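Case study 2.
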Amino acid sequence: MVSEISNKGLHNASRNKKDEFYTQLSDIEKEMGHYKEHFKNKIIFLNCDDPEESNFWKYFALNFKFLGLKKLIATHFGNGKPAYKLEKTNGDTIKTPLRQNGDFRSPECIKILKESDIVVTNPPFSLFREYVAQLIEHNKKFVIIGNINALSYKDIFKLIRENKIWLGYSIHSGDREFRVPKDYILNASSSRVDENGNKHIRVKGVRWFTNLDYKERYEDLLLYKVYNEKEYPKYDGYNAINVDITKDIPLDYEGEMGVPITFIDKFNPDQFEIKGQMATTKVDEFNYGYPYIEGKKKYARIVIQNKKI
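Prediction:
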């Protein structure tokens, strides 16, 4: 049985620069189907992909006409090997050597980014914060993969709170399997080698992050429970009630509520307002410190308020 990779294992992979996680085609297909109208006549840029390995390239190349794309571009990070750009229009696919190493932060790749409309990829987990900052700086639309723990980053949470980015449609729980390079050291029960010798690991907490809108994110979370003081105690030093499970949010409570970070999977900006979070020891305008009830520390919380009461 394949179990979930731990967060510790994920962080270790990041520290060791083991960031080449190849996304499954099935996961890409399930998510991209919700953005068809956004892709028409657009330049799609895959700036963290090896086109020869990438299922992102495969998906968009195979569906180029169906999606009505204007152009598809991928840049390959050299990592000791020659870096190149792959470019597809209605005609042939052209491969061009890059002068630099193909890193998304290189001036050469930033120039391509500026000329593109939508970025779609699985960026390095260890550079997720920097990667998103670049997309925001250049005002780009995107659909990318990250870990839900990125919500604890001050800059990422600020974007979520301001409704400038949100989670995608198709992944809301569980884990996802990624193929990894052949030289990747498998040291967890969450790993396997398939019949063709390809290595795979499973990663939990994976989510799509995007700023492309889709209608399903405006569906109301159906609430059925009624507030009572015993079931919903308040935090020490902060006037908000604790809600342990998202589905148990009381339908009649007007004040602020601390909910699990996985609430974000059900977040409808028309139904709830995100006020802040309780997720780190650092206190600022929108981070109120770790939540405590009668001196006992709780798991990280997002602070919300019902807009429809």
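The chain has two domains: 7-214, 219-306.
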